[in-house]
Specification:
Elements: E1 5-14, E2 21-27, E3 32-33, E4 37-40, H1 43-52, H2 56-63, H3 70-76, E5 90-93, E6 104-108, H4 120-138, H5 144-152, H6 158-177, E7 197-199, E8 210-214, E9 216-219, E10 231-235, E11 240-248, H7 256-273, E12 289-291, H8 298-301, H9 304-307, H10 310-324, H11 327-332, H12 338-341, E13 347-353, E14 356-359, E15 362-369
Antiparallel strand pairs: 1-11, 1-15, 2-6, 3-4, 4-5, 7-11, 8-10, 9-13, 12-15, 13-14
Helix pairs in contact: 1-2, 4-7, 6-10
């Protein structure tokens, strides 16, 4: 019964720091700082307790002032540390970061009970990019029209150029994925072959897997941006994350082996494009690695380096930036020198954890039949 449905466990092990944003952030008036960690209290519980202490009105004032330190206010009000247990909430490892002066910390996705998790849609989106990259690589010779179309885009406005680029990639996607015949209109989402693969949200993670990680952009010479303006709640390296996956084998051409082979091909190409340009930050050039979540960088989210090759790819990506960015942003990011550097963009997205550099979003992936 239902033998055409095959079930799997997907195990991600974070090789870098992973960030899947909730769309929210915590500000200095919303957390209490300790030497090696911060407490993010539940606002209602904390407010109730402080009202009982006769501090409700004063707390309302600090709530309205996002620039005032909650830690300093607690100290001034002589709230003892053993009272913090009444505030609920969770702790985040500071990761050795000096967060004084940090405006906000972007928060990780959490379920209604406050446990971090990765939506299945995030993992499926990463696999979709990997599969499309594999397809583009396999069909490279037959995509000359698409390459020419990318090169010929010359609208006056950046918005129009961006829409044109997206349209070309969407057509390539439709050719690869919209292969089912559930609707006469091929572009309909019901014809997407990836609908035959279902991936659950990850199992909830313990909040102690989170750490404050700074955004670090490195150039090809290994120099980091001097100013760190973004801090994120990230899943630490060496954390295991588990998903359930079901494949409808009656309709899908994709198998677990197919997915893993596509992942390996993608990572091999990624290393040849990116890693070798940035000082060989990893000791391996092949394996089952995928990039997931926010801040992982342009190359991990697109197939432009599959659609083009070598210097032509660098030029094509540089042109995309020039035609879809405002002149000010283009100059500010220094993209005019991308050809000189031999890679575009010429900055790699990293972070630091316990004093070591890590790529953002990098994970080892295993798929196990159950």
């Amino acid at each position: 019964m239902n033998s055409f449905l095959k079930r799997y466990k997907i195990i991600l092990k974070t090789d870098g720091a992973v960030f899947v944003g909730s769309g929210k952030s915590i500000k200095v008036n919303e957390y209490i700082e300790f030497k090696d960690r911060i407490l993010v209290p539940e606002q209602e519980k904390m407010y109730t307790y402080l009202c009982a202490r006769g501090l409700g009105r004063e707390f309302e004032r600090i709530e309205a002032n996002s620039g005032q330190s909650l830690s300093k206010w607690m100290e001034d009000c002589r709230i003892k540390r053993d009272e913090y247990k009444n505030f609920g909430g969770y702790y985040i490892e500071k990761n050795g970061e000096d967060i004084k002066g940090v405006r906000e910390i972007m928060t990780f996705m959490k379920d209604p009970f406050g446990f971090p998790y990765i939506p299945g849609s995030s993992l499926k989106g990463a696999l979709r990019t990997v599969l499309l990259w594999s397809s583009v690589d396999d069909k490279y010779d037959s995509l000359s029209v698409e390459r020419a179309s990318v090169s010929e885009i010359r609208f006056a406005k950046a918005k129009e150029n961006k829409k044109a680029y997206q349209g070309i990639i969407e057509r390539i996607e439709r050719d690869e994925f919209n292969t089912l015949h559930r609707s006469n209109k091929r572009s309909d989402a019901v014809n997407d072959s990836l609908s035959c693969i279902r991936i659950s949200d990850s199992k909830p993670l313990n909040p102690n897997c989170l750490a404050v990680c700074p955004k670090k952009d490195y150039d090809i010479n290994g120099y980091a941006n001097s100013q760190t303006v973004i801090h994120r709640e990230c899943i630490k390296p060496d954390t295991e994350i588990e998903f359930d996956m079901t494949i409808d084998t009656a309709q899908s051409k994709y198998t677990a082996e197919y997915l893993i082979n596509a992942v390996k091909l993608f990572f091999k190409h990624y290393c040849s494009v990116v890693d070798e340009k940035f000082g060989d930050k990893t000791p391996y050039k092949d394996g089952q690695y995928i990039y997931i979540g926010g801040g992982a960088g342009f190359v991990s989210k697109t197939v432009m380096y599959g659609l083009f090759k070598g210097d032509r790819a660098v030029k094509a990506v540089q042109d995309v930036f020039q035609r879809t960015m405002s002149p000010r942003i283009y100059r500010m990011h220094g993209h005019s020198r991308d050809m000189e550097y031999g890679v575009s963009p010429h900055m790699i997205k990293c972070t630091k954890y316990n004093g070591y550099e890590y790529y953002m979003g990098k994970c080892h992936i295993d798929i196990i039949e159950v």
